[in-house]
Design brief:
- This protein has helices at 10-15, 29-36, 54-60, 94-97, 100-116, 132-140; strands at 2-4, 21-23, 42-47, 61-69, 87-90, 123-128, 147-151.
- The chain is an alpha/beta fold.
- Helix 2 runs parallel beside helix 3.
- It is built from six helices and seven strands.
- Strand 3 (42-47), helix 3 (54-60) and strand 4 (61-69) form a beta-alpha-beta unit.
Length: 154
């Protein structure tokens, strides 16, 4: 199951292998997740945004499920959903990068996934460093599907 803000990316996510796609601008994440899972909710929910949306994601999480907040794209405060508390795991890159053992295990895991073809990075567009302002405008337009890469040129 995947979520996107706009209808424009829904079919691309389905083509990429998502069994279900929730368009968050048009439907409730919690209600649609419960519908898809016969009322149970999702066992694992991953959130790269945080902020107020955590409340709805907590409601979409199954009893005994886990909500992993691993990003903070929303600059507003992230509430702790006291009315329904799934297991919450807060994660940031420093959890790995400042611990040499964890970093080595993470690097091994990612490299093995890339070698095996399990992890297939999707690059939407590449910009030269001289065009970094254009890359930001492109990201702000929210049309990308995959990563936007800035190279040093050459």
């Amino acid at each position: 199951m995947a979520a996107t803000r706009t209808e424009a990316k829904k079919h691309r996510l389905l083509d990429a292998g998502a069994a279900h796609v929730i368009v968050t601008d048009d439907e409730s994440v919690a209600a649609r997740t419960k519908e898809i899972t016969d009322g149970r909710g999702a066992e694992f929910v991953f959130d790269a945004v945080a902020g107020e949306g955590v409340r709805e994601l907590a409601a979409a999480t199954a009893k005994g499920g886990t909500l992993v907040v691993y990003g903070a794209l929303d600059t507003k405060e992230t509430p702790f959903p006291l009315w329904f508390v799934p297991t919450m795991r807060l994660f940031n890159a420093f959890d790995l990068t400042l611990d040499p053992d964890r970093l080595a295990r993470a690097q091994h895991f990612v490299r093995a996934g890339v070698r095996a073809g399990t992890f297939r990075p999707r690059v939407d567009r590449t910009f030269d460093l001289a065009d970094v302002a254009e890359s930001h405008r492109y990201l702000e337009a929210n049309g990308q599907f995959g990563k936007v890469v800035v190279t040093a040129g050459g």
